[in-house]
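Aim 2 progress update. The chain analyzed this quarter is reproduced below.
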Amino acid sequence: MVKIQLLKLCPFRFSTFTGSALFWLLASYPVSAQIVPDTTVNTIVTPSGNTFDITGGTQRGSNLFHSFQQFSVPNGGQAFFKNAGDIQNIISRVTGRSVSNIDGLIRTLGMANLFLINPNGIVFGPNASLDIKGSFVASTANSLRFADGTEFSATNPQADPLLTISVPLGLQFGSNPGGIVSSTANLQVPSGKTLALVGGNVTLEGGNLTAVDGRIELGSVGTGSVNLSENLQGLEYSGVQNFQDIKLSDGARVEARGQSSGGIQVQGRNINLTGGAQISSRNSGAGTGGTLTVNAAESVNLSGDNTSLLTSTSGIASAGNLTLTTRKLTVKDGASIATVTNSPGSAGDLLVRATDVQLSGTTTDGNPSGLSGQVQQSATGKGGNLTIETGRLRITDGAAVDASTFGEGQAGNILVKATDAVELVGEGPNFPNFPSGIFAQVAESDIPNAGDAGTLTIKTGRLTVQDGAQISTAARKGGNGGELSITADSITLSGVSPQFATVAADKQETYRSGIFVSAEKGARGNVGNLNITSSLPRELCRVAHLTDKLLKNQEIAWQRSTLWI
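Predicted structure tokens:
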């Protein structure tokens, strides 16, 4: 423990010394970070070098309670909870006013779950790690609530607290909870367990959070309560009055993986992924993959190459579904939200619910930003269905909504329901003929038994396709093209790619704005049907660039349709 003795000096010199001493204390104290018990539940901390053995506490049934004035673990240090084997939950709180800086190892005995509650904030440094056999919950809540109505409070600790044998029921937050920061930390829980970070603002700056056949929970809460499910297999946020923000950057990875992944839930106000950050649920076995659920009260923003939300399967069972709900969704500069199969297993479904969806740009090598459900070349499993429910969908600068098959598996279906408008504009700025658009296609492939494309359905008030953007269900070398159905009050097609005038006449077709149901030359499959319905009482002006070679086994249905080209 650092001790400072102030000597009697003249007033002027005393003032100067106080400032110097305060500077020295702030600069030096984090280096001597410690674990210090308070006096409430008989927690005993025995230091030996940088190792802190934690014993004592108060046991009630299978719950063991610990209480600390400070709880920080320095680089190279170890916090070792030496609990009895019959303990199911180790419940620890920090009642002082300091942030918990964790830059060493947290270790427990047996199979116990570990709760660490510090309302002031928790920071995981680059050397932080876990050696526990149960789940780990780190939270900046004020207290932990139990099923019998009691609370274990960090902000209102009692000298003789009422402790319980009941199961933990929820986290109760105050009005200004501290944040949780993970700075290039690598935290992992054992197979089948849960890793939960639930605080004020949650920030992941690089590093990895990993659950094998288990679950990851990221929650950013302003005020209210978060309910814990049995065995910590999910959190529920109906008792939260307002949320805070979640930010992932610098290649941060949040991954649930394994033979039957338990899934991931992310809940906040604004959720931002940049700089190659990824949140993924990856299945490699015989059990169904875990879901990835992202809920944001205000916005979800993804930007940059390799930045993604993903569910995938490389096993014989299906991947989990990916569901995103927010007010505004922005995906740009090569970022993606995707469900993928690389195997006999089916890809998960992708569902986006948002008032406003904006997709824009590509990676530096031309891969589009956007939403996709893909069957990879090695896959025989079916692609997932892709559904967008929104007021307005805007796709620009080479971005795309895409459900295509590169393998033997059938591609998933696309359904776009936009009450106001669907707007598709332009192409990738650095890659000519990379149009912005919506695509349900059989991709270019030499696989003999390539799968069929799925259906593409668009229902909107106003559809605009301009400056080289496209809507397409295409059959290339492989399977059959998909059916395309559009229902809109108005449909406007206008303009061409800026490169249109520079290409040969027989190539210009692919540089036009348009709606395409097509089969390329040499394709083995048939073209799907094209159905367009519009409520405007005007005659059809022109079919969108469909030549004889594109009309193999095709039917076109028009109902009071209007097209401007």
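Confidence is low (pLDDT under 50) at residues 1-32, 537-565. The longest helix spans residues 11-28. These observations will guide the mutagenesis experiments scheduled for the next reporting period.
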